Structure formats: C-alpha cells, structure tokens
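**Backbone shape codes:**
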Amino acid sequence: ARVRAAVQHRTWNRQMIVNQETWTPERVDQLKIYFEAGLSCRDIAVNIGVSRNAVIGKLSRLKAQLEHSTQ
C-alpha cells in the first residue's frame, strides 16, 4: 500500500509539472532582459524559477526563431 501511494504521488507531481506553463510571456521577457544584461544561465534560472537547462533550451529556440525570421 505504501509503494502504491508513493507511485501515485509521483505521478500526480509529474502531472502538475507538465500542466504548468514554463515559458509565460512575462518569463520570456525576463529571460531576454537578463540575457542582454549578461547574467549566466544559472543566475537567469534562479531569478525566473526554472531549470538551467530550460533557460539554455529556450535561448536556443529564440535564437533559431530570430535566424529564421531574418532570412
């Protein structure tokens, strides 16, 4: 019973994380401001409340969007 409760709890936590929108328009604006200010990905992540990898991934996608839109 304990194992089942732990598995159900982990599944619920995973669903909660998936249902939360990581990159709101406000967070994207903050990301751009912090990046232009020269903050490290780690510092940006701490300030915005996301993981360092999320910051790196979003910066990469934003760069790709900028390159695509200028062509």
The chain is about 80% helix and 0% strand.
